[in-house]
Amino acid sequence: MNTLAPIVLFVYNRPEHTKQVIESLKRNHQAQQSDLFIFSDGPKNELAEKEVNQVRNLIKTISGFKSITIQESQYNKGLANSIIDGVTQILKQYGKIIVLEDDLETNQWFLTFMNDALNKYENINNIFMIGGHNVKIKIPFWYTQDYYLVHRSCSWGWGTWLNKWEFADWTVKGYNDFIKNESEIQKFNRIGSDVTPMLKSQMEGKIDSWAIRWEFCMFKHDAYCLRPVYSLVNNIGLDGTGVHCGKTDASEITYKLYNKNKYKINLPTKPLINSTLEKKFKKFYDRNIIKNEKKEKRAHIIMALTHPRYIAGWIKRKVLTFINK
User: Fold this and answer.
1) Could you give the angle at which helices 210-220 and 79-94 cross, rounded to 10 degrees?
2) What residue ranges do the domains of the chain occupy?
3) ∠ at Cα 31 (58, 87), nearest 5°?
4) How far is CA 279 from the centre of its chain?
5) What pLDDT, in 10s, does the model give residues 281-300?
6) What pTM, to 2 d.p., does this model score?
7) Mean local confidence (pLDDT), 47-61
8) How many Cβ atoms from other residues are within 10 Å of residue 43's Cβ?
9) Residue 84, CB-side half-sphere exposure with 13 Å CA sphere
10) At what angle do helices 46-59 and 15-26 cross, to 10 degrees?
11) Residue 90, burial from CB neighbour count under 10 angstroms (0-12, 13-18, 19+)
């Protein structure tokens, strides 16, 4: 049955970004027929309280959707727990979902694409996720499809189904066996050499990410995310205001935005896998890792030249790390 999935928007303390996201969402052709659920996380501290209240005042003025339901947390859950709890709650009620965060501006055809894909691929076992964003990879001239499949998930505007989300193991029970198995690590890293370090950081309590745990779930089930060739989402939060994102030029990350006046994205009943695009996808993430490492090294050099004590502290940390190995 081709019903529209509910939209779930997670917001925190960025009123201007949230306003832009809502306005872009309202311009979608299926917005007025869609139910919108907004989860507002509680302030982490007194400094965040003012902005959180501004966001909450804003979302109470929203119109332009079939229905609007707001849930305000009295305490700070953090993004990972907010998403896991909110998505699980809505999926149990509706069976499928479209998810956005407060810095993801959508194209007018975003909901059309997401609903089309969610309706078509719910019962295809190896597709766990629909993504609305494509990273900046070079699409071969001979590739004529409007989509592609990749083993890596998408957190910039995405959708899934209850029958796939239920496979998630948020405690990552198989981690200890995985981290000792080099062949499994290499297989996991087929989508980018950054995923194993991220998972390791998650398990060591250094980060708190729902996405890397969902990534590992998809890996364990050899599952794919279906993405559009042309992006339907633009991240407007890479300006240093986000809790989890630094300052980056979005044009360095996002492939061309879908800017057609008519919807012409063709999705087949049985999508085909193209290994060339997945290899390009891995190269994109590996290149960015190298680029970030170079930036970090340059920052160390600058700090060492401008702050004499910095280099001594850096050497001390390296020595202590070596001793404690």
Assistant:
1) 50
2) 289-325
3) 75
4) 20
5) 888 888 755 444 444 444 44
6) 0.85
7) 97
8) 18
9) 18
10) 20
11) buried
